[in-house]
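Why does residue order matter? Because the sequence determines the fold. Keep that principle in mind as you read this record.
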Amino acid sequence: MALSLKRNPLITFIADPSFSLSRAMLHSKKVRASVWISLVALLSALTILMALLRLKILFPLLPFLTFRLDEIICVIAFLLLGLKAGLAVSFAEFLALNLGKPYHALVGPSMKFLALVSMILGLEFARRVKGIKELTRVNLMVLALFGMLFRVVVMSAATFILYYILFPSMYLPFAERVVLKVFRVEFSTGLELTMILIILTIIFNALHTVLSVIPAASIYKFCRKLVARSS
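Structure:
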């Protein structure tokens, strides 16, 4: 039996083209909160599972950087439930990555969390400034562009601070070995190596934004269409 959009608040919310829970046809704050919490919990559990399964693809130019599929779930949370949900699910991923025995506890997961947060804030900035309410192709390009811009700027600064200011003796020798193995090039100074790392991380973060936002938007629109048909 098909569910009715007028009777089921969860179905109504998913089918609504708006990014905001306030436009869903829900009857009370209590119901809205329960739907929001349920969906955030579900998406958090999914992203934790994907993080622990280490579903990722190595970035060939800097193999210690990886494209993580669990980021897609974080973006879906943003598209479906808004900024707070996107940040909440991103934090769940951060906790999961710390359980997965990272190269350097807290630092690596914190950099990933910072990348996700900056990207989601870029998406939110675009949504508010441009008044985006539906995921048309143009709107999706605008969202991805701002998400990419925020992420690239923040992570370029974070890379410089991490490698050149905070932990040069720990991370620069490791990065130099990786770069030497990939490019067969040696660097005379730590600053020179850091600048190359920043350029490579810009490429990585730009690609990761596309690989996170586009699939998430496709899944979000597919679910909306599926729910609308079932109604």
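The chain has a mean pLDDT of 86.
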